[in-house]
Amino acid sequence: MKNKSVCYSPIEGERFCSRFSRGNKLKGVLILILFTFCSQFLPAQIGNDFLGARSAAMGGYNVTLSDVWSTNNNQAGLGFLEDMGGGIYYENRFLLKETSYKAGAFVLPVKTGAIGLSVSSFGFNLYNETKAGLSYGQRFGDKFSVGVQLNYLNTKLTQEYGSKTSVTAAVGIIAKLSEEFTLGVHVYNPTRSKLTADNNERIPTIMKLGLDYRFSEKVLFAVSTEKDVDFDARVNAGIEYHITEMFYLRGGISTNPTQYAFGFGMQLTHFKIDLSSSFHQTLGITPGISIIYTKKKSVKKTAPSI
């Protein structure tokens, strides 16, 4: 098993440091050490991190959820969406501006599914990862949906070093087994695309399998396992309680590393606001917020028959 502290960036330590002037060498080394140490705790864009404060508050669970963030989390969820919408997401990881995570998404429903677009960015001016994805989800009946996505990735390390670009794909399935159980499967980068050709560094291939159970119309419990082919599996588990028509309460836990999360959501007429906060015992607190706007389909009123 590979050492989990390996950084997913196309750089080598000595080459990186040699590109800085003497006055900036120490700063460059410190940044390199920070990202190398934190890579096991910071799922990079090239590793397909989840989007949305709802998922963050549920311990990172997302594989069966169907909302705007399905554009990234599991494209099969787009197949069950009927309203056009868009969302923005911001996460301040461990309260550091340099590790902030920003994203946006848009969904346009079609006859039997929806087209989605997502853009996300992680990092700061000296190191940045950006991902843009075009996705499509189609439902087959009321209980089964399939989704696919094509991603463009860009990893940049200072102006002096330059950047690397690559293309990946993703595929997902969601099956509503019954009124209570829903199963989800998602695979990111099934083709094992390379990040760089120099050292055969590959973009992570990540497989997710999840199941949610609805105790009632108000309570949802969900658990999933997520496996990077190069690292140990992790487990995400979360619960969502629909307190009132407007408010949601959420909690969750994830392993490898262990993190605890909680949050709540507020549903308005056209807007949904979700807040989350997760805690890592070594690196601290990560707050997040997402806002979704949905344009509900207008219901045509028919004149009463005489």
Overall description:
- The protein is mainly β and 306 residues long.
- The protein has a single domain (45-295), classed as Outer membrane protein transport protein (OMPP1/FadL/TodX) (Porin, Beta Barrel).
- Helix content is 10%, strand content 48%.
- It is built from four helices and 14 strands.
- It has helices spanning 13-18, 22-38, 53-57, 158-161, and strands at 84-92, 100-110, 113-123, 127-140, 144-157, 163-176, 181-188, 206-214, 219-228, 234-242, 247-254, 259-267, 271-280, 284-295.
- It has a 14-stranded antiparallel beta barrel.
- The longest helix has 17 residues, at 22-38.
Summarize the entry for a quick read.
This protein has about 300 residues and is mainly beta.
Topology diagram in text:
Layout: H1 13-18, H2 22-38, H3 53-57, E1 84-92, E2 100-110, E3 113-123, E4 127-140, E5 144-157, H4 158-161, E6 163-176, E7 181-188, E8 206-214, E9 219-228, E10 234-242, E11 247-254, E12 259-267, E13 271-280, E14 284-295
Antiparallel strand pairs: 1-2, 1-14, 2-3, 3-4, 4-5, 5-6, 6-7, 7-8, 8-9, 9-10, 10-11, 11-12, 12-13, 13-14
Per CATH, what is the topology? Porin
Number of helices: 4
Total strands: 14
Radius of gyration from the CA trace? Answer: 20 Å
Number of domains as seen in the coordinates: 1
In the CATH classification, which architecture applies? Beta Barrel
What overall geometry do the principal axes of the alpha carbons give? globular
Low-confidence stretches: 1-30, 36-44, 299-306
List keywords for this structure.
306 residues; single chain; Porin; mainly beta; 14 strands; 14-stranded antiparallel β-barrel; disordered C terminus; disordered N terminus; 10% helix
